Amino acid sequence: MGSTTFEWPRGAEARDTAALELWLAVHGWEVDPSVFMAGGLGPAVQVQPIGGAGQDGEPGLLILPGETVEYARDRIRIASRAAAPTTAEPGLST
């Protein structure tokens, strides 16, 4: 199934977006193309279950620069600091 966490880096670039999209697809999620937010630390990304809101009406999640997200039980959520990777390299974590 792949990694359960993904670090969305500050100052994310196109390659980071591509890596996030691949990671999300494995878990049945996608980047919401209708939402774009730029900020001083880089872009924020809105993600959602593929096809829109999930069966339970979950609208998705806004991922801010520097946050680590995790996949757990069909949901994407912000990882607790304890679950967040301690490596400096953004992207996939185990």
Q: How would you sum up this structure, described in words?
A:
- The chain has one helix at 14-26, and strands at residues 5-7, 29-31, 45-49, 61-63, 68-72, 75-78, 91-93.
- The chain is of the alpha+beta class and 94 residues long.
Secondary-structure element order, as H and E? EHEEEEEE
Q: What would the average pLDDT be, to the nearest integer?
A: 83
Query: How would the global form be characterised?
Result: globular
Unreliable runs, pLDDT <50, ≥5 residues?
none
Number of strands: 7
* Helix percentage: 10-25%
What value does the Rg take, in angstroms?
Answer: 12 Å
Give the helix/strand class.
alpha+beta
Strand order of the main beta sheet, please?
6-5-1-7
The fraction of residues assigned to DSSP E strands is 25-35%
Largest beta-sheet characterization:
4 strands, antiparallel
Count the DSSP helices. 1
Distance between the termini: 11 Å
Output the keywords.
single chain; 94 residues; four-stranded antiparallel sheet; three-stranded antiparallel sheet; 1 helix; 7 strands; globular
Please render the helix and strand layout as text:
Elements: E1 5-7, H1 14-26, E2 29-31, E3 45-49, E4 61-63, E5 68-72, E6 75-78, E7 91-93
Antiparallel strand pairs: 1-5, 1-7, 2-3, 3-4, 5-6
Summarize the structure in short:
With 94 residues, the protein is α+β, with helices and mostly antiparallel strands. 14% of the residues lie in helices and 28% in strands.
